[in-house]
Amino acid sequence: MKNQEARGKVTKLKGRLKEATGILSGDRKLEKEGSSQRIEGAIQEGVGTARRKVGQLLGDLGKKIKK
């Protein structure tokens, strides 16, 4: 797992915690903030995964071209 994927997972977890805290305390603003942060983390994680897979694909392609 690369850096961007890990940061995305952490952001997503923080968002879940905020969202749960907002639900339990009845704070709608905190709940919405947590939900937004969770979505942001999921997007960041997805971008990191896509970048890693593209990098792997290009690496594999380079190896095949050298043969």
Descriptive key words:
mainly alpha; single chain; 2 helices; 67 residues
Model description:
- There is one protein chain.
- The chain is mainly alpha-helical and 67 residues long.
- The chain has one domain (3-66).
- The chain has helices at residues 3-25, 28-66.
- Helix 1 (3-25) runs antiparallel to helix 2.
- It is rod-shaped, with a radius of gyration of 17 Å.
Briefly say what this structure is.
The chain is an all-alpha fold and 67 residues long. Helix content is 93%, strand content 0%.
Strand and helix layout:
Layout: H1 3-25, H2 28-66
How would you classify the quaternary structure? single chain
Number of domains: 1
Question: Low-confidence runs (pLDDT<50, min 5 residues)?
Answer: none
Helix content: over 70%
| Gross geometry | rod-shaped
Strand content bin: under 5%
Radius of gyration: 17 Å
SSE run: HH
Task: Give the biggest sheet.
Answer: none
User: How many runs of DSSP E, i.e. beta strands?
Assistant: 0
Q: Tell me the number of helical segments per DSSP (H or I, 4 or more residues long).
A: 2
Structural class: mainly alpha
How confident overall, as mean pLDDT? 94
- Kindly report how far apart the N and C termini lie: 28 Å
